[in-house]
Amino acid sequence: MIDAQRPAPPQGGFSARRLIGIDDLSDGDVDYILRLAEYYAGYLRRSAPAPARLRGKTQINLFFEDSTRTNLSFELAGKRLGADVINVPVSASSVHKGESLVDTAQTMAAMGADVMIVRAKEEGLHEALDARLDCAVVNGGAGAREHPTQALLDAATARSAFGGLEGRIVAICGDVRHSRVAGSNARLLRRLGAEVRFVGPARLAPPDDQFTDIERFDTLKDGLAGADIVMGLRMQFERMGAEFGETTGEALRDEESSRRYFREFGLTHETLRYAAPHAKVMHPGPMNRGVEIDGALADDPDRSLVLRQVFYGVATRMAALDALLAGDAD
Ligand code: CP
């Protein structure tokens, strides 16, 4: 007899042992995670308890950079699957006594972690941890480089709205240069068949030798033309200093500059008219309302998928944890 509360999980293999970048996943792995995300989204929509497939597993969340969505949704995801979840209070940890990030992570792993979710700005830290730790390492955000579970949850959200990404046009707008979300999304969405564009001021586009096959636009009018999905990005002021010089970061941050930026590149109901009539807007959060996106558009349930992205954040991270840790149970 079919139990409507307990549908069968999707079938399929999963080969990855870590999730540091999108390219750690085969096409089959991506497909499996996205189908599993939809399976768990069903439980979340019904407020039904999901199978405790991670009972007995220990998940450690180690966030060396601030986070609201990623940290909380990984915590919820692990708990909904029955894992023991530990959030390391980094600001009160021995990192501040000079302990290295690797030593801190190794200490946590020695306490018996099965998976460690790590957010850090340091290049190469995740790979160094993967080489040293016995547990699975999941990237919860690495500098300006990769945020793979954000890309997966964005793909799950887009699929829920459009049925699939094959042939869809996705315009990624704003501060692409400093965005790990843009990088992971560009890698993943194209693998799923979408046409990706970067839209924004030239100084916020990636360096010329990166993503050379992605078309760049410096006006919303051209970049959004015919787009199905318009993805706004936050100005990542915290990463501008080193590359642009502090003064440029500061200059972009002041109110007049923000207003000017919004006039030229702000996503509003009006600028969304450049896109396809059915276009939806996405944003990974946190948003700077009135800088890269108008609050009225972000809050418009007919045009905005922002809160649906948050919802799929939990479902997709449940899927990623399950795929990495649970094996072929059930
Ligand atoms: N999208 C995202 O990574 O948000 P947080 O920084 O709040 O985790």
Tell me what the structure shows:
The structure is a single chain. The protein has 330 residues and is α/β, with parallel strands linked by helices. It has two domains: 22-143 and 310-325, Aspartate/ornithine carbamoyltransferase (Rossmann fold, 3-Layer(aba) Sandwich), CATH 3.40.50.1370; 149-299, Rossmann fold (3-Layer(aba) Sandwich), CATH 3.40.50. The protein is built from twelve helices and nine strands. The protein has helices at residues 27-46, 69-80, 101-110, 125-132, 148-162, 180-191, 220-223, 240-244, 246-253, 255-265, 295-298, 306-325, and strands at residues 58-63, 84-87, 115-120, 136-142, 169-173, 195-199, 215-217, 229-232, 280-282. The strands form two sheets. A five-stranded parallel beta sheet has the order 7-6-5-8-9. A four-stranded parallel beta sheet has the order 2-1-3-4, with helices on both faces. β5 (169-173), α6 (180-191) and β6 (195-199) form a beta-alpha-beta unit. α3 packs parallel to α4 (125-132). The longest helix is centred in the N-terminal third of the chain and has 20 residues, at 27-46. The protein is globular, with a radius of gyration of 20 Å. The model has no long low-confidence stretch (mean pLDDT 93). It binds phosphoric acid mono(formamide)ester. Phosphoric acid mono(formamide)ester binds at residues 67-70, 141, 150, 284-286.
